[in-house]
Design a protein that fits this description.
Layout lengths: L12 H14 L3 H6 L1 H29 L6 H12 L4 H14 L8 H15 L5 H6 L4 E6 L6 H10 L9 E5 L7 H10 L2 E4 L6 H7 L5 E5 L10 H12 L3 E7 L4 H12 L5 E5 L9 H8 L4 E5 L8 E3 L2 H8 L2 H5 L1
Parallel strand pairs: 1-4, 1-5, 2-3, 2-4, 5-6, 6-7
Antiparallel strand pairs: 7-8
The structure holds guanosine-5'-diphosphate (GDP) and magnesium ion (MG).
The site of magnesium ion has 5 residues, from helix 8.
Length: 334
């Protein structure tokens, strides 16, 4: 077996943006750096991960050549995982683990293997604990972060409407978009009675918090800007210091390329999100990439979004949602 060739890989443009990011952090004051230590560790892991993403498919290909050691039923499942967007190396590892746990038995029901794979996936996908968050009577401030167009504003409305999230709470959505609240947001407000507040001035943060302190939940929607744009993260960090959110949800669209997603995660990690939201499952054939992201960033999953309909296209971050996407009903019934 040939080792994967390293020299073929050209340093991508994004990696240099990434390097700039890391060096920016490293030029901060030592005591700040100390606080950021955990995040930096995670980022360096992510950085390695991004580098490896290209290599992994080679590795997966090589490994799959050696996959004669796995009986057909395992191999079929491994292929199915790969077709659904699980990286080759992860698909291989999941199958291998199941194979070992089944004592290398060649004649097994597909379902037995699937059950084991699901158990392994459970380790990767931890649902965000809304029960615990909702139990506390304290006023909550939820900040939504993420790149442009991923569905943050849509998700703000979905969170406000979902009966098992904030649907039974008094919610105010804070729109910080420089273009003001969208038409969709305004009509949602009229329809649901959810209050909308428009705030463009960071200096008004404390006054705004005071004004809405009787709301159970403030969902703070942010405008889409690239985290690579100059000083974007710095500005957001300053806002976060004043807003003191209860939770920060990073919103990402699974329609994006996996490398971009990992890179975006790395940037946004600096803002210490406490949960992740994946949107636009209806626009990908590769939902399994979620696991590659969760493999490197251990954030609980708050929600999945899979369409534009506010009251319908949302699910809480339970692993069952991903099982349904990845294992089709034929496998479930087999
Ligand atoms: N297909 C699909 N479209 C979505 C989803 N979530 C949001 N959108 C659409 O994506 C576009 C951008 O959404 P928006 O919430 O404004 O994104 P933002 O820029 O992050 O606030 C809108 O047309 C939404 O209707 C989703 O899960 N699936
Ligand atoms: Mg928006």
């Amino acid at each position: 077996m040939m080792p994967p060739e390293e020299k073929k890989e050209k340093p991508a443009k994004k990696t240099s943006q990434f390097d700039n990011l890391i060096s920016d952090i490293l030029t901060r004051k030592p005591q700040e750096l100390n606080k950021e230590k955990d995040i930096l560790d995670e980022i360096s892991l992510l950085r390695k991960e991004i580098k490896d993403l290209g290599k992994k498919s080679d590795l997966g290909a090589n490994q799959s050549q050696g996959l004669a050691e796995f009986p057909a039923v395992y191999d079929e499942l491994r292929e199915m995982l790969s077709e659904n967007g699980i990286q080759d190396d992860m698909a291989y590892a999941l199958i291998k683990e199941a194979y070992l746990l089944l004592d290398g038995k060649a004649i097994v029901e597909k379902n037995e293997i699937v059950t084991l794979i699901k158990t392994e996936m459970d380790y990767l996908l931890k649902p965000f604990n809304f029960e615990r968050q909702l139990k506390s009577k304290k006023h909550k401030v939820i900040l939504l972060l993420g790149p442009t167009g991923v569905g943050k504003t849509t998700m703000a409305m979905k969170l406000a409407a979902h009966p098992e999230i904030y649907g039974n709470k008094k919610v105010t959505i804070i729109s910080t978009d420089p273009y003001g609240p969208t038409e969709a947001l305004k009509s949602f407000s009229r329809m649901s009675g959810t209050q909308i507040h428009e705030e463009k001035d960071i200096d008004q943060t404390e006054a705004m918090l005071e004004k809405y302190k009787s709301s159970d939940v403030l969902i703070v929607d942010t405008p889409g800007q690239s985290p690579f744009a100059p000083n974007q993260l710095g500005k957001m960090e300053a806002f976060i210091k004043r807003l003191k959110p209860t939770d920060i949800f990073l919103v990402l669209s699974v329609g994006s390329d996996l490398k971009d997603l990992v890179l975006l995660c790395a940037n946004y990690l600096l803002l210490k999100p406490s949960g992740i939201v994946f949107t636009k499952f209806d626009e990908t054939t590769q939902p399994g990439k979620v696991f590659s992201i969760l493999d490197v960033i251990s954030l609980p999953v708050a929600c999945f979004g899979d369409g534009k309909r506010i009251f319908i296209d949302i699910e809480r971050g339970n692993p069952q949602y991903m099982y349904d996407k990845i294992f089709d009903s034929k496998v479930e019934e087999a």
